[in-house]
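User: I'm preparing a small set of examples for a lab meeting where we compare how different chains pack in three dimensions. I only have the primary sequence for this one, and I'd like the structure in token form so I can line it up with the others. Please keep the answer compact; I'll paste it straight into my notes.
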Amino acid sequence: MALVVPFRALRYDRNKITDMSRVVSPPYDVINRKQQQAFYDADPHNIIRVELNQSTENDTLEENCYSRAGRHFRLWQREGVLRRDSRPAFYINETTYTDADGRTRVRKGILTLLRIEDFSSGTVLPHEKTFTSHREDRFKLTQATGANISPIFALYPDDENWVQALLEKARNPHPLTDFVDPAGLPQKLYAVEDPGAIAEVQKLMTDKAIFIADGHHRYETALSYRDHMHARHPGAGAAASFNYVMVYLCSMRDPGLTVFPCHRLLPHFAGFSTQDFLALAKPYFDHVEIPINGNPEEARTKMVQTLSGAGQRRPSFGLASTESDAFCVLSLKEGIRRNGPMHTSDPRLRDLDVVVLTDIVLEHILGLDNSARDHVHAIKYLSDTKEVVDKVLSARAQLVFLLNPTRVEQVKAVAEAGLIMPRKSTYFYPKVLTGLTINLLNPAEEVSGRLEGHP
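Assistant: Understood. Below is the structure token output for the 455-residue chain.
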């Protein structure tokens, strides 16, 4: 069962930090070096110095990005830049954004603590593979700070959105923070401290499964850190703080929930030829070529439209490469899902564009096995179609495979079946900000507000 509890968040003191937009950042895994420096330059107390501290060529085992992150984190608490709320609460985060169709939408989520459960329990369900290096990185950061710096983004089923409605009714009327973030998106944060509303939400959540949307590395880190702390503190009880992790929970029926595609960009792939690739792909895929004809904007728009239409009928993906004057849309031929070189026979996986691309194209045709794909520099994962195509057209990357977005119902079906998609199969937009709330993992401290009758 899913056990959520309120917590006393560590937050920026608004008397010391008057402009929240200067101190928050996206999560670490979507920040490039240029953006990292921009956040560094924005404010000396920007959370980037903890979430993704800059490495230097002089780093050692004792002095490195993690030790610096820990020092910043502890100093800001001593200075009062970060202060802990006096009462445990659930926190409602509202993010306003414009979707791909130009519509204004608001996504609402709950920042809370979730009791850490092994995946085998069926309470918390993953859907993606993870990178070894990312897990190691997040574990070192958790050790250095003794905190959850950024939340895990997770989904829960709630067809009527009862949980969110209950919390909105009980929330304090005035937001704790109300600002426009660095991406230009309005952000609001409200506290829900009412014990009755908290208890009711806890009861509503007990029969729900939690689906990890974004933050698989952070959840696997939480599992490892929990076990690590149990070994160090064998007398700690079930309520010990390290048995819980900070999450952002969003209803699968929230009107503001959006999934973007997650394209595969190969910066360097020696010897790739589009025509040679199409010849190798011909036994498995039909393809349509879209000439660029000196107008990449128009061709890109046509490719996206063609890809969207093709994806409604069968697994499909797009291709752009530096040495081709045309974009391509490839669609899987009939019978290949059953008889082709795919690793799974389960229809919940073999019908996914991203699985077809991974099994048949990346591994079978191009020879990028799981070990190669686990290397963070072999493939880059980006959601902005214009950005990735522009990188290829300007020869800053060699080729890109473009995908349609994975649907929420597909994520749910895969996770419920205990199956796993390839890495970076989804891109939930917008990302949950880092720096709104932080959760301390003090081994001597127990969580409060646990549901009556449960350990």
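A couple of notes for your slides: The mean pLDDT is 92. The chain has two domains: 4-258+430-440, 263-404.

User: Perfect, thanks.
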